[in-house]
Design a protein that fits this description.
The complex is a heterodimer of chains A (662) and B (223). Chain A has 662 residues and is mostly beta strands. Chain B has one domain. The chains are: A mainly beta (662), B alpha+beta (223).
Chain lengths: 662, 223
């Protein structure tokens, strides 16, 4: 027996077992016992993270210096601004002031006043906006990364942002109307920027008693002509259409087969006028009383021809096609839609229009081909104003039941559509059963991803273009409730990044981004490499308002202060780390015109410029030249200085403005 | 028997056509080398002779300054004037503007190059014993250029404004004209560039031409 113990075979076996124990098992036991705090698995355990969390982290984590793949432009609601957010990292890259003064960019504090003033209405200074729907400029139905447009729901205005420097260049207002919602949306080659109105109003800002609502109030849609050469909206080639006062809501431009048409849903076909205090049904009940509202189908091509042929009338200096003219020329058709819906979203191929039920658990899908056939066949019904109404059966493709509160629909590259479900606090993924999408699945709900909470709009990567990218979806949630540390009763919005790259029911929330400062209402997500922003302004002396070199720009060596009676001109340069001149001596009663040119060429060498008391602060980016004016009303010594930490001698970058008493 | 000097296998007294051709060719080879050097010198004026890259955390791509025979400029990308940027940084340590360096040398550089080329041409076509002296300026030019560069670098590094903001932390220094150096948070990397390599190649050709001309002359005179 003993001999057997020492057999060669036993030795080999023994050695193998020993090797296994010391080589494989022991090190593992030792590592685990040592509590390796640098090891990612133990970090995961310490923080209580799951494998799904790790997957989310790996999909979104973007190391320092690595660029994001997408940029999301989100409106900032009542903040009157636009946010640029990198994706998938969800890092905030830039705040763009549009309708509201903002001191970091110096917007409204010495610079940008002429642009803000374009947004004044009837001489009334308006210094905020309710930004709703950003729209990137498109070429052939694809984002081209050149321009961004944004509407102001509160005052019915539209702004143009140049994506070379991410700054607002123009604000326009249709004087015939004072609010909007269905804007901005562009036509497939950005010929027009669509701004749909919302709450019915008397045209031109007139007064009319609410009792005359049906006769004296109107709806409105404005088509702003965009001129790519000048980078501005051309007011003289822009026009509007009067619509019934049905509270038009969201609009979308047709594309491909439906190019030349514009679609808007509406939600007050009842023409409810509220008055809860008078014993009337409140608006919330009144506008939802009827079983149906109206999808508006607008033939923009034909409307343009009517406008160009002089078919529009003048309302406060703006051309508006009257409703009777639209009916007569066949510019406008209606079709019933489930009561008080939201959204009119055109599918990537332009062949269907999806309406979210809001108070109805379905999305209703309309076929553009059926619409054309129904129009050709001749509508049999008319609404209260004589607008032809197509029957629902004649234009509806199908309905898909998704859940409670369907609002807004976007699309991906797999033939899926995504609809936000406000009441369910979820995002529904459903298959578009038509040819070219997912005929294999048919029209049906695939899954619902719970989101936190009360989701409004959705944005998918290039999700409203002719060729969506898929991959990522963002739910713009109105409420965050318990998602973040409490900062008091005012809570941030919650933008949730969702992975939609895999088919079927595999969707995952990857990241929560709290947005403070306002309510991001709607967003568009563009491939980052389509954006060609300048690193610094192209030439020294650049005026961003005109995108040319400003003749008033100052070069080094030519600085100085000149006086012509009470008019003083200050010509100043800024470079690390001094402003020239450093002594500015003026007198009470002077009108001061002050130009500062940042002569820097290094990327990020921005200088600020503040004059205390006089309420001036500028951001002068490399190459930029800014000219501002003020009245020297108060005597004293004012230490002006650079407000953007620019260099080791930033604190020394200052000077004195000495205002002598009269 | 001069014809046989470079064709020792040929013992015949009869003139050899091939040998005669090679002899004529050899006679003009040094001239050809001089003229080649002149062409290289012309080409070099379009290329940088020397460059310095300044690297610091806040300039991820570095700041590159290139020195041509008659001017100073930044890198190939025209978006930014790197020399002005470097000047802007240098004012913290009290260094004078680089645009003011070697003004005289830069102003006479092109006439100087033309003169050296003219001298090379004279030396190429006027084959006298002493005309090799005409090639000396071009022969030494690459080294004179570097010596002058070193002079200016030293002059700039040693003559800092004592009242400059960073004068307490950056003492006068001599930046290396080749290889790496450190100034404040900047690492500098200096190197000779394509233009300088062309004129060095030209010098080698001139030297070879001189040796050939003298060896041929020597062989003929010993014949």
């Amino acid at each position: 027996m003993i001999k057997h113990w020492f057999s060669l075979k036993s030795l080999v076996m023994g050695a193998a077992i020993a090797a296994l124990i010391f080589g494989v098992v022991a090190p593992k036991v030792i590592t685990n016992a040592q509590d390796g705090s640098t090891d990612w698995q133990s970090i995961m355990a310490q923080r209580g993270l799951t494998e799904a969390d790790l997957r989310a982290a790996v999909m979104t984590y973007t190391p320092s210096g690595v660029m994001d793949e997408y940029v999301m432009f989100a409106s900032a609601g009542q903040g009157g601004q636009v946010l640029a957010i990198g994706m998938p990292s969800m890092r905030l890259l830039r705040l763009i002031s549009v309708f509201t003064p903002e001191s970091w960019q110096g917007y409204g504090y010495g610079a940008g006043n002429e642009i803000l003033d374009q947004g004044n209405i009837d001489g009334k200074e308006i210094r905020w906006g309710d930004t709703h729907h950003p729209a990137l400029s498109e070429t052939n139905g694809e984002y081209d990364g050149q321009w961004l447009f944004i509407g102001d729901k509160a005052n019915g205005r539209v702004a143009v942002i140049d994506l070379r420097d991410f700054e607002t260049k123009q604000i326009v207002h249709n004087p015939a109307f004072l609010n909007d919602h269905g804007g901005t949306f562009v036509t497939p080659n950005t010929e027009y920027i669509v701004e749909g109105g919302q709450y019915g109003l008397p045209l031109g800002g007139d007064y009319a008693p609410i009792e005359n609502y049906k006769d004296a109030y109107s709806g409105m849609i404005t088509f702003w002509k965009f001129d790519r050469e000048t980078g501005r909206i051309d007011m003289s080639k822009s026009f509007a259409m009067e619509l019934p006062p049905y509270w038009q809501d969201l609009c979308d431009s047709g594309k491909s087969v439906s190019e030349g048409w514009v679609f808007c849903n509406s939600f007050n076909a009842e023409m409810a006028t509220g008055g809860i205090e008078k014993g009337n049904p409140p608006f919330e009940a009144g506008v939802s009383r009827g079983a149906v509202d109206y999808l508006h189908m607008i033939n923009l091509k034909a409307a343009e021809a009517v406008f160009q042929a002089g078919g529009a009338v003048d309302v406060k200096g703006f051309k508006v096609i009257p409703l009777e003219k639209s009916i007569e020329a066949g510019l406008l058709y209606l079709a019933p839609e489930p009561r008080s819906p939201h959204g009119a979203d055109v599918t990537p191929k332009g062949d269907f229009i999806v309406i979210g039920g809001k108070l109805d658990p379905h999305v209703t899908i309309y076929s553009f081909a059926k619409m054309m056939a129904a129009i050709a066949a001749g509508p049999t019904e008319k609404d209260a104003f004589g607008v032809p109404v197509l029957s629902l059966e004649s234009v509806m493709e199908t309905q898909v039941e998704l859940g409670l509160g369907p609002l807004h629909t976007v699309f991906d590259d797999q033939g899926y559509a995504y609809t936000s479900l406000f009441l369910d606090s979820a995002v529904a993924r459903w298959s578009i059963g038509a040819e070219g999408y997912r005929p294999q699945d048919g029209w049906k709900l695939i899954n619902k991803t719970p989101v936190q909470y009360n989701v409004g709009h959705l944005a998918a990567a290039e999700g409203d273009t002719a060729t969506p990218d898929g991959r990522f979806l963002v739910a713009l949630n109105k409420w965050s409730v318990d998602r973040f540390l409490s900062t008091g009763p005012l809570l941030p919005q919650n933008l949730q990044l969702i992975d939609i790259s895999q088919p079927g029911d595999k969707t995952q929330i990857l990241y929560d981004l709290p947005i403070t400062g306002a309510e991001p209402h709607y967003a568009q997500i563009i491939k980052a490499d389509k954006l060609k922003a300048w690193e610094v302004y192209p030439e020294v002396g650049w005026n961003p308002a005109t995108q040319t070199v400003d003749p008033r720009a100052v070069t080094q060596g030519t600085e100085g202060i000149t006086r012509d009676g009470k008019n003083v001109t200050v010509r100043m340069t800024a470079v690390r780390s001094h402003m020239t001149p450093e002594h500015v001596e003026i007198q009470v009663g002077d009108h001061v015109t002050w130009t500062i040119t940042n002569v820097e060429r290094a990327r990020d060498a921005t200088h600020g410029f503040a004059i205390p008391f006089y309420n001036i602060n500028l951001s002068i980016e490399p190459g930029e030249s800014i000219t501002f004016e003020f009245e020297a009303t108060h005597a004293g010594v004012f230490s002006f200085y650079c407000t953007e930490f620019c260099s080791a001698l930033h604190l020394e970058m200052m000077g004195y403005m000495m205002v002598k008493p009269e | 028997m001069a014809a046989n000097v470079l064709s020792p296998s040929n013992s015949s007294a009869a003139p050899n056509t091939a040998a005669s051709t090679s002899r004529r060719w050899l006679k003009w080879l040094p001239s050809l080398l001089y003229l080649s050097a002149a062409v290289l010198m012309i080409l070099s004026t379009a290329l940088p002779y020397w460059a310095m890259v300044l690297q610091a955390p806040q300039y991820p791509g570095g700041l590159k300054m290139r020195v041509f025979v008659n001017y100073i400029t930044g890198d190939e990308d025209p978006k930014m004037d790197e020399v002005r940027e470097i000047d802007g940084l240098n004012h913290y340590i009290g260094m004078k503007s680089l645009y003011d360096a070697a003004r005289l040398e830069r102003s006479i550089a092109i006439p100087g190059v033309i003169l050296m080329i003219a001298l090379l041409a004279v030396a190429a076509f006027w084959q006298r014993r002493w005309t090799w002296l005409l090639t000396v300026p071009a022969l030494l030019f690459p080294f004179i250029y570097l010596a002058d560069l070193a002079f200016w670098m030293n002059h700039y590094g040693q003559n800092l404004d004592p009242y400059a903001p960073l004068s307490s932390s950056i003492q006068p220094f001599t930046p290396p004209i080749l290889g790496e150096g450190v100034i404040g948070q900047f690492k500098t990397v200096a190197s000779v560039e394509s233009g300088w390599y062309l004129i060095v190649l030209g010098s080698a050709l001139i030297a070879l031409g001189g040796v050939l001309r003298f060896s041929r002359r020597g062989a003929r005179s010993s014949d």
